[in-house]
Amino acid sequence: MKWRILLLSVILALGWWGWGFRSRDGVVICDVGQGSGAIIMSGKIEMLVDVGPDNGKMLQCLEKYLPAGDKEIEAVVISHGDSDHVGGLENMKKYYNIEQIYSSAEIRKNDVLRMGKFEIEVVWPEEISGDENADSVVLKIKHDDQLFWFLGDVTSDVEQYISWRKLWGGAGGVLVVSHHGSKSATSQELLDTVRPEEAIISVGKNNRYGHPSPEVIERLKNQGIKIKRTDEKGDIIYIW
User: Fold this and answer.
1) pTM of the predicted structure, to 2 decimals
2) Per-position DSSP letters for the chain, written without gaps between them
3) Multiple choice CATH, 23-239, 3.40.50.300, 3.30.360.10, 3.40.50.720, 3.60.15.10
């Protein structure tokens, strides 16, 4: 009898875990190794921002934070075509029904997507230049007083251009650092304009690129910005 009670308790706990996330809104920056992938959850709706490389880690993240049996993903935004951001998509389609996929071919600056209580504004690109990184989709995601910035792999030149043109349209919140902390991005102009309270670096342990760069870490620390890294903390979770 005791083992049956214990088994029932485990089942109830697992059910509460899955539906607990379902009943709230939140953002999960998934630990996908050297790459980028995030889940945006609002009620019974999910949107992904990038899906990581083809290593199965984004699927593991979905299994942890979506309720058992939920095989519907309402939207996926792909920042750009690099394999560490989009490589996991084809395998994901075998397990999940994805209603809509957006990339820079479908969405541009000033487009707005709404998902539950989230408002997703496209900050960039204005037009396609042919440079995958520079053409990355940049998103400003708002939920009441919560603000998240997703920068894909945009370069410091793009960051500076957006800053000079006053296209950010807000400040504060959580910055998902561009290009995994590469020294080619996270410019001082960006930090001075956006003024994030926290910075998330989605990066793999002991990666061959040397990400994140010491220069980026120093700039973030000099601004007093709290740094969170997936290679150190695993999945980074915000739930309301």
Assistant:
1) 0.90
2) -HHHHHHHHHHHHHHHHHHHHHTS-EEEE---SSS-EEEEEETTEEEEEEE--SSSHHHHHHHHHSPTT--EE-EEE---S-HHHHTTHHHHTTT-EE--EE-TTT--TT-EEEETTEEEEEEE-SS--S-TTTT--EEEEEETTEEEEE-TT--HHHHHHHHHTT-S----SEEE-GGGG-TTS--HHHHHHH--SEEEE---TT-TT-PSPHHHHHHHHHTT-EEEEHHHHSSEEEE-
3) 3.60.15.10
